[in-house]
Design a protein that fits this description.
By secondary structure, the chain is mainly α. It is about 85% helix and about 0% strand. It has one domain (about 1-225): Phosphate transport system protein phou homolog 2, domain 2 (Methane Monooxygenase Hydroxylase, Chain G, domain 1), CATH 1.20.58.
């Protein structure tokens, strides 16, 4: 039974590591596309990675169910398995959000000079949420509650960046004639910003799962009260 447990936890760890690596790669692709959205190969890579993410999400869920029913884990092992399931859900959501951003970035008018200020802010934002996601995963792997709490605190920064981006759009376009192209551009830029803010939320969820592993307590309701 002990050998089965060890092997099962290794399978979960390896598959989760691959899922994490793939999601972080997706975020780096977004950063590159914000700098140059004409690189067709990056969109192809993004679509291929999304298939990998979806398949890994299904596989990890199957392994979680198998682990629970096969060796009846208790205490720390059970917390770890539950955390794997929670974080897998959040990583899959990040993958979906990244794909949404990729679809918006394909529009040619995002290369216009008028969008340069907003794109610079979005590049800063994707850099932040990428680090939040990476640090949250490191916090889980090393059971580092201090790093996890740091990620949680950064969620306020991501929220503020989103609000700043909305103000930029309002101030820039509020008094201009609303042509179809401009309206589409505003919607795309706002949607990209919103999706990045949601990625920050999911990174925060992962950090909360890391705290659950490190300290054995669920802080989600504490955070919502704050």
């Amino acid at each position: 039974m002990q050998n089965i447990k060890v092997k099962q936890m290794e399978i979960l760890l390896n598959e989760f590591h691959l899922l994490s690596k793939t999601v972080l790669t997706q975020l780096k692709i977004v950063e590159k596309l914000l700098q140059n959205n004409a690189i067709a190969s990056l969109y192809e890579e993004m679509e291929a990675n999304e298939i990998i993410i979806d398949r890994l999400e299904v596989k990890i869920r199957e392994e979680v169910v198998f682990a629970i029913f096969k060796f009846n884990p208790v205490a720390q092992d059970l917390r770890t398995i539950i955390a794997y399931q929670d974080m897998t859900t959040n990583l899959e959501r990040i993958g979906d959000l990244v794909l949404n951003i990729g679809h918006r970035l394909k529009n040619e008018y995002l290369n216009e000079e008028d969008t340069s200020l907003m794109k610079n802010e979005l590049i800063k934002m994707v850099s932040l949420v990428h680090k939040m996601t990476s640090d949250a995963l490191i916090a889980f792997a090393s059971q580092d509650a201090t790093l996890a709490y740091d990620v949680i605190e950064k969620d306020d920064i991501a929220d503020e960046m989103f609000r700043k981006n909305e103000i930029i759009l309002v101030e820039k376009y509020a008094n201009l004639p609303m042509k179809k192209e401009i309206i589409s551009m505003i919607i795309d830029l706002s949607t990209i910003s919103y999706n990045l803010e949601r990625i920050g939320d999911n990174a925060t969820n992962i950090a909360e799962a890391a705290v659950f592993i490190a300290e054995g307590k669920d802080i989600r309701h504490e955070q919502s009260k704050g």
